[in-house]
């Protein structure tokens, strides 16, 4: 929407006497050229049209048509030796829009949960970081003898017992199992008991946990099954391969109905998710958010892909010294 102000004669008005007056007046005008109608079928409708010698404004009903009409009129007047100018001004937005007061809206971290190659609880994980321990070791999940890189930050001794239902743990991709387990550990670490969870407004509780790669293994297994027949494919291969399904599954498990989606920004995924989750709380859209990131790319296609782009170290004999960017 824009306000258009004709600064000289408009359409077939020369003195303004033939123009309708008043804000609610309307008129249908044909396209004209030297007082000759060019097209009887092409009409423009305006609201609030006033003479250029009067209030000199009208509010358009169709912005595109008005702009086109102005261009045609300028060309017509130029051919007729007349001068004309049209000024466009943006319409001011309404000041009545309600906005959430965020001045006193603080965001705090109340609990953390992890599933990493350096530990499965925040204290162990942080202690190993401070001691400079490396979680890089030889890959044991599959035979990688033919790969030039045979080391990775593989999560070992990981268990979903007590965190994920067995019927789901058999079907889900590993990245979703990490996500569900760490998410529930974060609730426990924040002392979010069943009693407290029951008192929460679930429409104000959200999950924003992203993934850079998504369910790579589930998708890769589906491709291998397709080589035989589509009937051999896992019916969950599509939903369990998408990056947002981890957040969705955790929200469904908890019954949370607040903001729920995922962000995928490569290695910065978790940071963006945490920032966006904090903004939801600041804006008053949520009171509690589970946020972070999860990936499980240590499979043949993931390892091969990173090797192909020359992103991995080949110091297989000294895995703990393979990647130390902060060491002198």
From TrEMBL:
PROSITE patterns: KS3_1, KS3_2
PANTHER family (alphabetical): 3-OXOACYL-[ACYL-CARRIER-PROTEIN] SYNTHASE II, CHLOROPLASTIC, POLYKETIDE SYNTHASE-RELATED
All residue ranges annotated as the Ketosynthase family 3 (KS3) domain in the record: 104-328
Biological process, per Gene Ontology: fatty acid biosynthetic process
Keywords carried by this UniProt record: Transferase
InterPro entries linked: Beta-ketoacyl_synthase, Ketoacyl_synth_AS, Ketoacyl_synth_N, PKS_Beta-ketoAc_synthase_dom, Thiolase-like
Any single Gene Ontology cellular-component annotation: mitochondrion
Organism: Taxus chinensis (Chinese yew)
Main EC class the enzyme belongs to: transferase
Pfam families, A to Z: ketoacyl-synt
Statement: the UniProt record of this protein carries the keyword Transferase: yes
Protein name: beta-ketoacyl-[acyl-carrier-protein] synthase I
Highest taxon of source: Eukaryota
Entry's EC annotation: 2.3.1.41
Gene Ontology molecular-function annotations: 3-oxoacyl-[acyl-carrier-protein] synthase activity
């Amino acid at each position: 929407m824009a306000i258009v102000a004709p600064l000289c004669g408009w359409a077939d008005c020369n003195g303004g006497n033939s123009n309708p007056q008043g804000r609610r007046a309307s008129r249908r005008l044909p396209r004209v050229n030297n007082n000759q109608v060019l097209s009887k079928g092409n009409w423009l409708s305006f609201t609030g049209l006033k003479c250029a010698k009067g209030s000199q404004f009208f509010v358009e009903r169709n912005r595109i048509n008005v702009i086109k009409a102005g261009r045609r009129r300028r060309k017509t007047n130029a051919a007729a030796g007349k001068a004309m100018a049209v000024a466009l001004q943006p319409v001011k937005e309404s000041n009545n829009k309600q906005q959430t007061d965020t001045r006193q809206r603080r965001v705090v971290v109340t609990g953390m949960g992890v599933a990493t190659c350096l530990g499965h609880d925040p204290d162990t994980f942080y202690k190993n970081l401070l001691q400079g321990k490396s979680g890089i070791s030889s890959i044991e999940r599959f035979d990688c003898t033919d790969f030039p890189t045979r080391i990775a930050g593989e999560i070992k001794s990981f268990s979903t017992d007590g965190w994920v239902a067995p019927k789901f743990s058999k079907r889900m991709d590993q990245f979703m199992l990490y996500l569900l387990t760490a998410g529930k550990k974060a609730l426990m670490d924040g002392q979010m008991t069943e009693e407290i969870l029951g008192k929460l407004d679930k429409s104000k509780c959200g999950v924003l946990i992203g993934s850079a790669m998504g369910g790579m293994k589930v998708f890769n297994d589906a491709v291998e099954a397709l080589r035989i027949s589509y009937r051999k494919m896992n019916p969950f291969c599509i939903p369990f391969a998408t990056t947002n399904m981890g957040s969705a599954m955790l929200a469904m498990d908890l019954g949370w109905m607040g903001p729920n989606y995922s962000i995928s920004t490569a290695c910065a995924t978790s940071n963006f998710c945490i920032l966006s989750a904090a903004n939801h709380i600041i804006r008053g859209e949520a009171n509690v958010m589970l946020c972070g990131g999860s990936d499980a790319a240590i499979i043949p296609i993931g390892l091969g892909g990173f090797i192909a782009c020359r992103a991995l170290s080949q110091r297989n004999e000294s895995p703990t010294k393979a990647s130390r960017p902060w060491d002198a």
